[in-house]
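Same chain as my last thread, 115 residues:
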Amino acid sequence: MSALQKDKCIPCHGGVSAASKDEIKEMAKEIPEWTIYDTDNIDMIERVFKFKNWKQAQAFVNKIGEMAEAEQHHPALLLEWGKVKVTWWTHAISGLHKNDFICAAKTDEIFNADA
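reply #2:
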C-alpha cells in the first residue's frame, strides 16, 4: 500500500494553491499508470481501466463512487462497455491537489483488489 492510499483527503473549498509542477511530478511517481495532462490550462490526471464486460465496469464505478463519497472528493467518470475512464482534478482550484493523487491511488487499490 502506498503512502497516498493510506492518506485521507482534506477539505478544499478554494483559497489554496494548486500543486506545483515539482509536487505533481513527485506525487505522480506513486501512480505511474496515470496520465497527467492539461486541458484549458487545468492540470488533470486520468487513467482508463479495462474490464471483461459492462457489469464489471459498472461495479467498479460504484466502488469508486463509494470511495469518492467517503473522501468528499469526486472524479469525472466515463463508463463504457468494458472500460472506465477516471479523471481527477480539484474544481475549486482549477488544478491538481494532493487529494487528486490520494484518490487516484485509492482508485488503483480498488481496481487491484478486484483483479
